[in-house]
Design a protein that fits this description.
Length: about 400
């Protein structure tokens, strides 16, 4: 079982908390959705209540190993300050002179936020030296960044090598995510239906293969559906496609058939020539996507089909939007699906930032059983994989509890 921060003696100690503050920002650097910041508060408050000095670290966006003002954690500092009603010290760098000095001088009850971890190349390279510099700042390591636990990055994986079982554990958010996914995996009430969407097949193909033995039905929508439709010989116009994965897509379909999993693909789409709000749209069957047009949302017939397929589901896992939901014209399919899932008499699990965003915008967030903060990480957990960020915090003797 994963160790909890509650299992450690943290009283009065200097604690390093790896958070997931990878929040969406608008063009003026305002946080447009602060759920990830809010989710971190419980663990931070727990540490404050135990008189700790707290060092917070996170990545934000993909700054490619160099300082880029655009990805500064300053907006997160402001939001945290408001949420905790407390001063948050922002370091000017990650492991440089300023961060080191501020970490060293940090008093009990104070909070220091390091700059974006990905300003340093060592983070994504899982560099041990970089990890050690981070580790040396604190006495206790807490990981509460579920969204990055499927990545072996320095602040998630390598850093754990410098802490023992007594000084490293999961925060409340990570603990909740892991326990929920593991329970879902162990005892899914059937029928278990997975609904997947989004743009990238490449990122999710292996997940689909691994999900097959666990699910009864697989519903595929969003941009990724077109790779499957093309693989079946359909002309998909200019729709999103990953041509190098056509064979793989067919392999998934064959494997599903072998395992008795029913796969549902869109039967119609909302098509347009450009992906914009002012584009002219057409509702067409997947057999009749005109040349030069692309499918940008599932159509009404598909919404009905998916609703039917979900009608008897007892467990539903949803990961990835059904269309380009960011543009109103192409958002209906995702919103309708959100309502259907919210109303289902089933255990409903939503994974991934985009999907969580759809559910929130549709007003369905309170109706879902569980909304995971990590898309990739939650899929990998449900597939049954051991996450590099979770493994070092798991006590081997109680793994099968
Ligand atoms: P992912 O990161 O793979 O979960 O993909 C999420 C993104 O997929 C969202 O930003 C959607 O706008 C995009 N998306 C969903 N459906 C389509 C589609 N039919 N064509 C292009 N992009 C899509």
């Amino acid at each position: 079982m994963i160790r909890s921060v509650r299992d450690l003696d943290i009283e009065g100690k200097k604690v390093f908390i790896r958070c997931d503050f990878n929040v969406p920002l608008d063009e003026f650097n305002n946080i447009t959705d602060d759920r990830r910041v809010r989710s971190a508060v419980q663990t931070i408050r727990y540490c404050l209540d135990h008189n700790c000095s707290i060092i917070l670290a996170s990545h934000l966006g993909r700054p490619k190993g160099a300082v880029d003002e655009k990805y500064s954690l300053a907006p997160v500092q402001m939001r945290l300050k408001r949420l905790l009603d407390k001063e948050i010290i922002l370091a000017l760098d990650v492991v440089g002179k300023d961060a080191q000095e501020k970490a060293q001088n940090l008093q009990n009850g104070e909070i220091l936020l390091l700059e974006n971890l990905r300003f340093c190349k060592g983070e994504t390279a899982n560099d041990e030296e970089f990890a050690k510099t981070l580790a040396d700042m604190a006495e206790v390591y807490i990981n509460d960044a579920f969204g990055v636990c499927h990545r072996a990055h320095a602040s998630v994986e390598a850093i754990t090598r410098f802490f023992s079982e007594k000084t490293s554990a999961a925060g409340f958010l990570l603990q909740k995510e892991v326990q929920f996914s593991k329970n879902l995996l162990r005892r899914p009430t059937r029928p278990f239906v997975a609904v997947v969407g989004g743009s990238k097949v490449s990122g999710k193909l292996q997940a689909l293969v691994n999900l097959l033995p666990r699910v009864d039905k697989l519903l595929i929508g969003g941009g990724m559906a077109f790779t499957f439709l093309k693989a079946q010989g359909l002309d998909i116009g200019n729709s999103l496609v990953e041509d190098d994965l056509l064979d793989e897509a067919n392999r998934v379909m064959e494997e599903a058939k072998k395992q008795g999993v029913k796969v549902y693909l869109p039967v119609d789409v909302v098509a347009a020539q450009t992906c914009s709000q002012d584009a002219t749209i057409k509702f067409v069957t997947v057999q009749e996507i005109p040349k030069g047009w692309m499918g940008l949302d599932i159509g009404p017939a598909t919404s009905r089909l998916f609703r039917e397929a979900l009608a008897d589901a007892q467990t539903i896992l949803w990961n990835g939007p059904m269309g380009v939901f960011e543009i109103e014209k192409f958002s209906k399919g995702s919103f309708k699906l959100s309502h259907v899932i919210a109303e289902a008499h089933a255990t409903t699990v939503v994974g991934g930032g985009d999907t969580a965003d759809v559910v929130a915008r549709a007003g369905d967030a309170d109706e879902m059983t569980f909304i995971s903060t990590g898309g990739g990480a939650s899929l990998e957990l449900i597939e049954g994989k051991e996450l590099p960020g979770v493994k070092p915090l798991t006590n081997a003797d109680s793994e099968n509890e």
